[in-house]
Design brief:
Structural class: alpha/beta
CATH architecture: 3-Layer(aba) Sandwich
Strand content: 15-25%
Number of strands: 8
Number of helices: 7
CATH class: Alpha Beta
Largest sheet: 6 strands, mixed
Order of helices and strands: HEHEEHEEHEHEHHE
CATH topology: Rossmann fold
Bound molecules: flavin mononucleotide
Length: about 230
Amino acid sequence: MIAFLFLISQYFCEEQKNVLLTYFSYTNTTKILAESIANQIRESSNNKLNLTVQQLHVESIPLGWKQSLGLYWNSFRGKDSMHVKELNQDLTSYDAVMVGAPVWWYGTACPVIHWAQTAKIDHLRTKFFFFNMAGGSGNERAFTHLASTMHVTPLETLGITTKTTSPDFLVAQYVNNCLKQLGALSASPLNSQGDKAGEESNEIKNELKKGVEQSKKQIKETFKADPSGKTEEL
Ligand SMILES: Cc1cc2nc3c(=O)[nH]c(=O)nc-3n(C[C@H](O)[C@H](O)[C@H](O)COP(=O)(O)O)c2cc1C
């Protein structure tokens, strides 16, 4: 009886874990991925997690070819050429931090690297999970890039490219594994993948397809407006 009451009290007194999902997105495809992950976490964790979603902001995006070359170097050095607003963030109150980024020049996009360099981390407390969006390749190198910058080993990673055939399944699998690592899995997101007729869910795939088309248009129009090197104020 006492053991039963103890278990019941543990169940009700269990504290919510604090999770931060932070990401940067230039042309919004990482944003689509981040929002899908956040939605599935909310649906599958049954309020066991206190999830905060944060988009990293930059003051400007240098888009021209000259600045683009600068971005190449800066993405490796993590130089703050774009003025990230969330620098020196204190992450020590989070049990888990999920970091999402686009792949730039086979590394993690420089705004995320610069944010990571200045973030305050409790390496004993906080678990890390990474996810990336890439045009074609470079996800693995980008994960290594970010992990070495933060001096952490991510427990799970998810690398999606515009050519990934089943992003919906991979996102569900990623969320499933992250929630397991946090002891917060209530209903597996994998269960909603594929109906009885064996048809896969393609919601994220379709969103990403639209997002990629829009981002191509956005980049093309900006270059047309000023091919020499425009800085877009945000
Ligand atoms: C400066 C820059 C460098 C890029 N470098 C790569 C790369 O090395 N490999 C790759 O697969 N895609 C690369 N891409 C494409 C992006 O990773 C891809 O378009 C991604 O979906 C963008 O994410 P976002 O829409 O969240 O900004 C690059 C894009 C930019 C703007």
